[in-house]
Write a structure and sequence with these properties.
single chain; Aminopeptidase; eight-stranded mixed β-sheet
């Protein structure tokens, strides 16, 4: 497996280059790969903690954002989970979820986490302790479900 170094930073602590690489990766996946034109950068980015994984060459290949309570849901939330296509299927996304959970527990304390997951990733999130808590709905024409980890 590729050696990935993980960092977590509040928005205000990101360098311009880090933010650029995070947004570039998210746009490549959520807008281009999924053929879904929408406003990828939103005000929630400013209120979030950004987790990102870098290769030994410094390339950012994996990202997620942690949203405090009251930003998306009454619970803490994980969102914008993205992994560069050529690195999928190597356990890096699992590593990123562990990093996300670890940060949440260290920063916010042990508590419930709510997400809006693309439906095709249900099994991935189930394996990380999330349970579906709502009906399927379409967001940008992609089936999603709300999930909760206790």
């Amino acid at each position: 497996m590729e050696k990935v170094t993980w960092k977590t930073k509040a928005f205000k602590d990101l360098t311009v280059d880090e933010f650029f690489e995070i947004i570039r990766l998210r746009t490549a996946i959520f807008v281009v790969e999924q053929n879904c034109p929408y406003q990828e950068v939103d005000e929630k980015d400013r209120k979030s903690f950004h987790i990102f994984g870098k290769t030994p060459t410094g390339q950012i290949i994996a990202v997620s954002r942690i949203l405090p309570q009251g930003v998306s849901y009454k619970e803490v939330s994980i969102g914008r989970v993205a992994l560069k296509k050529e690195f999928r299927g190597k356990g890096i996304a699992d590593e990123m979820m562990k990093e996300s959970f670890q940060f949440i527990e260290n920063y916010f304390g042990k508590q419930a986490i709510r997400i809006s997951a693309q439906q095709y990733l249900l099994n991935f999130y189930n394996k990380h302790g999330f349970t579906q808590v709502g009906e399927m709905y379409l967001e940008d024409n992609i089936p999603h479900v709300e999930m909760l980890a206790q």
